[in-house]
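Single-chain item
Fold in token form
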Amino acid sequence: MLKGHVAIVTGGSVGLGRAMAEALAHAGACITLASPQTQLLEEVAAQINASCGAMRALAVTADITKREDCVRVVAQTLSTFGDVSILINNARREQRGPDLPTEGNNFAFWESNPDIWMQAVNVNVSGTFLMSREVTPHLIKRGWGRIINVSTSLDTMQRRHNSPYGVTKAAIDAASLIWAADLEGTGVTCNILLPGGMVDTDGTRPSTAQRRTLSVDIMNDVMLWLASPLSDGHTGERYVGSLWNKALPPDQAAQGALEAPVLRPPSPRS
């Protein structure tokens, strides 16, 4: 499906990012994995290379809040694979921090830790922008490309005590719609992808009688559709991994996974 394509996956060392990177590789793409977690990153790259073939995955230690690191991720991708056609903006900073309970910085906004607040904004919003800014000129030049921004449910964006995380993901939805409009006519699309529920990203959140958690590969099917030529013409849209029906043909399954965006697309007068 994706043979000959090259994808960059941020936050590719664990959880959803790792699952998507592995799915992309098994679909034929070459992968650059970007994350600050060097050891985990190299382990994922080694596993992909062992299962999919030598030099199919590249690990690049990077902090996406630093522009020079984003430049280096793209440069090393081009140097190694000679191309880039897909960007998966998956990296995120949750509310957790040193000396905080496992549920994190879930306080009223005026009681939130300002340092954790700014870290979340810098990773989730600024980091996504910086990576997209570096990749997009290459996508436009080649006349085809994909930007897929990982977001969250509308409920999460509005839930009590759920800032800054909900705030940052609402910003990503708005940015995605703006970028889709900016990219109109270039052959490059920008779409939003979310799991559609709580994901057991590290094996510590199994389903219970009170709460069902989703598997870490929940977004893979719709992500592969969005990353492929099958999704040509679809941009500025929002897709939910848990709504994908594997029993349907891909285009029908994608239609079933389509959710209305947080904001309306801009009118011609905007």
User: Anything to note?
Assistant: Residues 114-142 form the longest helix (29 residues). The radius of gyration is 18 Å.
